[in-house]
Amino acid sequence: MEIRHLRHFIAVAETLNFSRAAENLRMSAPPLSRSIQQLEIEIGGALFVRGTRKVEVTPLGHALVPHAARILHDMDELDRDMRRRVRGHVELHVGMRSVPPELTTALTTVIRSVEPESDIRLQPLDSLAQLEQIVSGKLSLGLVNRRLHDARLAYVPVLREAPGIALPDEPRFAALTQVRPVDLAGLRLLIQPGADPTAPALEPIVTSVSEVVPVSSDIIGGLSAIISQGGSCCLTLANPSAPWHKYLAGERVIVRPLSWDSEPAITYLCWRVDRDRPDDLGPVLVAATERFATPLDL
What pLDDT sits at residue 168? Predict the structure, then answer.
């Protein structure tokens, strides 16, 4: 039995989906399936019931979960401790979604106030990928804009940003200092992956626009190009230093804040609860909680 077998087992047990587990592990599904089969042969029984539509953990699998999780936790602790002893300093992998530089500067300042020689490695990832990697131990901390109901994770809000909307640079929109729902009549609302158009906070917008269109553009400038042609708008952030604001604003595209009491966009600092210890992330988390007792407001 190898450590990698246990990592593969936990990944499948958490997701109940071989394809998604393989994606999280940065591997393809067939090798993952073979790894689980090898583990089952060594243990002497099935760990999963593989159906056509779903995967279920067997009683034997449920019995293995706490043992495997404890072994992986201990191995991660050992790896961190040995790396620290070899390097003589702390190495922190911090996930980050698209956030303004004011936040990353504030966070790295907090970390270095506690660990002056720390090696901080920022890794750009979407929020869900960060949460998965925090749970797996690949990330120490994450800056995320969504929370999971998972007792293993803890959060503290660190940034509040006023929502805005990207519009075609046309006279009727350029004259606005703030945007009301009625101002969006006749426009299509472009919705990026991860946004929920049924969320209550979006109801005033969704009921005002002519159409809600899910879009995904991997081309730099793709969304702003669509908006610049007229007839479309897209939610963003009013904060000019926000990367999402900078991404959309440009030639023939303007960004205006929303006029009604819409919920601010919240970014959270996230970590795994069991790492809040004096010999691990505890001192950094104390300093971060104090620094962000009042979140940055941009």
Answer: 95
Phi-psi region of 16 (alpha: psi -120 to 50; beta: other; left: phi over 0): left
Structural domain count, the chain: 3
Asked if residue 46 lies in contact with residue 9, where contact means CB atoms within 8 angstroms, the answer is no
Rounded-to-integer distance, Cα 150 and Cα 262, Å = 27
CATH number at residue 66: 1.10.10.10
What is the domain range of residue 136? 89-158+267-297
pLDDT band at 216 (very low <50, low <70, confident <90, very high): confident
Phi/psi-derived region of residue 78, left when phi > 0, alpha when psi is between -120 and 50, beta in every other case: alpha
Residue 182, domain member (yes or no): yes
> pTM to 2 decimals?
0.69
State the pLDDT at residue 118. 83
Computed on alpha carbons and rounded to an integer, the radius of gyration of the chain in Å comes to 23
